[in-house]
Amino acid sequence: MASTATLESTASPIAPIDVSRAALYEGEAWQDAFRTLRAKAPIQYVPESDFGPYWSVSTYKPIVYIEALPKLFSSSWEYGGIAIPGKVDELIDGEVRMPMFIAMDPPHHTAQRRTIAPSFGPSEVAAMKAEVQARTAEVLDSLPIGEAFNWVDRVSIELTTGMLAKLFDFPWEERHKLTWWSDMGGNVELMKTPEDMAKRQAALFEMGGAFAQLWQQKAANPGKDLISVMLGSDAMSHMSEQEFMGNLILLIVGGNDTTRNSMSAFVWGLSQFPDQRALLESDPGLIPNAVQELIRWQTPLAHMRRTVMEDTEVDGVAMKKGDKVCMWYISANRDESVFKDADKVIVNRDNARRHLAFGYGIHRCVGARVAELQLTCLLEEMAKRRLRANVIAEPERVATCFVHGYKQVMVELSHY
After folding, report:
1. The domain 8-415 is classified under which CATH number: 1.10.12.10, 1.10.630.10, 1.10.540.10, 2.40.110.10?
2. pTM listed for this prediction
């Protein structure tokens, strides 16, 4: 299904702005580009990029509209999947397709999501709380006061990787492999050339081998972990190797990169708005709302992609069958028509929960409650100890337009 967008249907009031460029995110320079797009071309056709042509959707309401119509705007891996690199009916040299349920349409998506979703339900997440609190307390109590360290490594990665290891019942002493595999799985910059694809796939096949062993162990001795849940379901017990690996990538990237980068945004964001940090420190009752606000402000996955299944219009803009559509959550969460003073962290923002960082509709993040639990416990345990993370240098960021995150955030802890 090749794109058939025409010149007439793609006319824009301003020159195309390619917001898929990695440099925009590495340098945290994406705000002005999206501000211009929201004001002048909220739905714009970009004919050339490192990932080919695409529609760029940068405001809140059109994204909700597109997300609500999964039959018209497909997520299926068969048509390119959920991220901007995916090509339609064309494989990058050496690429192996790895289907995952987020990159499927109903009914396959429905059946597989229904298998996983109960593991992240309200009662299951509530049962996790005591262990998450204890693990968070242990990590925080191991940190030095008044000495510089990288918050990403010592806190964000440690907490999220530990949670993943628990969910999968993955060998605890090898849990940091999950971080490496997550980084490789979520980096769309490694999907441009055959050489990068080979590097990425070597890491993912290593992951597949490790989890294949775990799969065999759980087949013989099932438990309550996610692998055992998959094995016990009709929808997922007979997955191909590629589909198994695809779903692992989804669950690992979804459970690691996103929460990890929101944890890092906690210290960086509040350091940029010290009045809001002081407000939160004075009133821990604001923590649940502040968690939503920090997720909105950070938006740990910058975009999701869909493929148009038949000619259609969105807000008067004509899209053609086969066109690639990128929904920029990172921009929608800064849409001033929805969020006043959207570039600011406002811990008592009254509509913070309206953010699109978890997506919308049938593909909304299945693990959202677990992410919220981990972030809430981190803020609560910091508050109990009256700990403040003081950022002492500009963060080093990830250079990709998909996972919006941090490599390094140097901090020193103090008490308030």
Report:
1. 1.10.630.10
2. 0.87
